Amino acid sequence: MESLRDLGLSSYEDRAYRALLALGTGTAAAVAEESGVPKGRIYDALGGLESRGLVRVQTDREPKRYAPVEPAVAVDRLVEAKRRELNRRIETYESGKGELIDRLADAETADDEFWTAAVGADDSLDLLFERIDAAEESIVVVATDVSAQFDVDRDGPALLDRLLAAIRGGVDVSVLISPSVFDDARAAVDEDRATLTIAQGPFELRVTEDAYGNFYLIDGEEVCLEVADPLSPDRLFGMLDLRDRGFAARVNEGFEAAWADGTVVDEV
């Protein structure tokens, strides 16, 4: 495949997405200037990208700012849409997916700062899984409590499967949890799968009572932070995803201190 138009995007949508990869984040006017899409059509192009889940929109400031999802995530979403629409042609799209990801990754920049959020347990879990799937080098998981909205028996194994897929892709995974979360996880995940996970590298699990809150550090530069409901602290309000290397470095420093004092778990 030569471009995202092969997966159903219009020419303007394709150009707008590539422009956002080059910009990192940008306003509609900046995307129009970078891409050459006429200003009268740029909002239609960005709206099309948003409806397909290829961009995230920061709406608390004017003018709005847009940021692209990673090429791998964008292509996966488009391929899945084509799978539903054109099952008989799906093999063609799958065979060209890797080439397109490589083409888009060449233009990707990750220096800009951006944040986005999801509200509610289901959307928060979707956002978390998306960011885990996008990890290329490392994932740090810190969990000291479990929201009352999460079904541990359902969501625990689902999260473990995502981490296992990352490990198989060569991503380093470090998990630091409280004793209570460890007990909940051990009850939710069957022993064979837990043993398999612990035995795999690169994976390490430690237990501590010196950490607070739940967060996920992706590739050392992005933090997914669970936000509790201020009126009901045992319930999840949402998930805040921050791409800020300075903030991520501070989070990692705190993690390293708690990690060093944690108890290594090498069997269940």
Automatic annotation (TrEMBL):
Domain Transcription regulator TrmB N-terminal: 4-71
Signal peptide boundaries: none
Domain DUF7436, chain residue ranges per copy: 110-263
Domain of life from the UniProt record: Archaea
InterPro entries, alphabetized: DUF7436, TrmB-like, Tscrpt_reg_TrmB_N, WH-like_DNA-bd_sf, WH_DNA-bd_sf
UniProt protein name: Helix-turn-helix domain-containing protein
Source species of the chain: Halorubrum ezzemoulense
